[in-house]
Design goal:
Elements: H1 5-16, H2 23-37, H3 43-52, H4 65-75, H5 78-93, H6 112-121, H7 124-138, H8 145-163
Helix pairs in contact: 1-4, 2-3, 4-8, 5-6, 5-8, 6-7, 7-8
């Protein structure tokens, strides 16, 4: 089995969600991934995991939580970002309240490609206008402008580094 960037990125995002943030634990976790999957990684992933496993050695090698989230999110494929958006739709937006229904997990999927495209252009206002249209016109709901604006910011925070990947200097 190949240990892919998507697998590593999703596992890293889960690890980064643990509190409190602990760079030594993250570094050691990366070292374990390095040892366990050394033969299954492509060169780019091998180099990254190797680099991240040295973070505890010296503060100059450390990444912040935000930088690590950025790295992980950028590694995700388009399909993985679609899944992140889908999960956010169901847990954070969910204007019709179906997020916990197993049979309705694809209810908002038709909005994902357009939202992905709008996020890639970096237009917060356009993402809001599209979701506001979906809520108030397409779904014919009253809508909650404040919640929808907050959700758009959450989407931007969640996907920003996928589109705009800052390099470590």
């Amino acid at each position: 089995m190949t240990y892919t960037k998507d697998i590593f990125a999703n596992e890293l995002l889960l690890k980064l969600s643990e509190e409190p943030f602990n760079i030594v634990k993250i570094s050691r976790w990366c070292y374990i991934k390095y040892v366990d999957h050394i033969r299954e990684m492509d060169d780019e992933l091998y180099n990254l995991v190797s680099e991240l496993s040295t973070m505890e050695d010296d503060p100059q090698f450390e990444y912040s939580r935000e930088e690590l989230v950025s790295i992980a999110t950028k590694m995700l494929s388009v399909e993985s970002v679609y899944r992140l958006i889908q999960k956010a739709f169901l847990t954070d937006w969910d204007p019709i309240g179906i997020g916990e229904w197993k049979d309705a997990q694809d209810e908002y999927d038709s909005y994902i490609p357009e939202v992905y495209q709008l996020l890639s252009t970096g237009s917060k206002d356009e993402v809001f206008m599209y979701l506001w249209w979906a809520e108030t016109q397409h779904m014919e709901l009253k809508g909650n402008e404040k919640n929808t604006k907050a959700f758009v910011q959450r989407l931007i925070d969640l996907t920003y580094s996928h589109f705009y990947f800052p390099k470590k200097s």
